[in-house]
Amino acid sequence: MVEAGAVTWYTVLPVGLDPEARERVRGSLAPLEAAVLAGADDWTEALELAAKGRYDGLLVAYPLGDAPMAGFLATLRRPACPCRRAAIVLVTETRHRAEAETYLGRGANRVITWAEAELRLPSILEDLFKAAPRVPAELSVRVKPVADDPAPSIACRTVNISTSGMLLELREGYRPGTVLVFEMLLPGVRLPIRGHARVVRRTSVRREPFPGVGVTFAGFDDNTQASLNSYLTRASA
Prior knowledge:
This protein is of the alpha/beta class. It has helices at 19-28, 43-52, 69-76, 97-100, 114-130, 225-235, and strands at residues 2-4, 7-15, 34-36, 57-62, 87-92, 110-113, 135-136, 140-145, 154-161, 165-169, 179-184, 193-202, 212-220.
């Protein structure tokens, strides 16, 4: 992200897009104040550029020539890569969409088709740019739904976590909208983090190899949010 006066410019690196496609993307992202750069022609050039500078988003054509996509995305997400927290969107033809979606949660954040790119890309990237960065972490958590009748809490663990929510691995398939009471243990913190969270999605068997739910935090008890924020700052350093 580049700040110029009162204007914030997000930097987007196109990967594998031809000149005409880059111009269409540049036009569609103009309202977002996004600077669409010249881009990389292939995956090796993209990795070279990503190793030298930080980009807010990467727009990657799929399939990307002979790119080993799993390895390509894993390299971009390595801790040493300046782009490890960038929004990565795969753009593909409808016939390749299902295949591209297997990389969601494995480095890619979103998949869209070329037919919908100009219309949907601005809102997709805006949401991703504003999302709190997630930290991979396996933390012990106990959850139970808010209900009139008492229910035992269920032990589970986090897959990743941010200041705004967490992805939980658990077999109980809570429906989106369910409000949960949670208790979480952080390494080096004596008291557990307690609060409420709302289920926003269930994991997809096509892209995530575990059952679970994604939740957003709805509130914290006893000012424990400060302890979580401190942990996330240390973990992401």
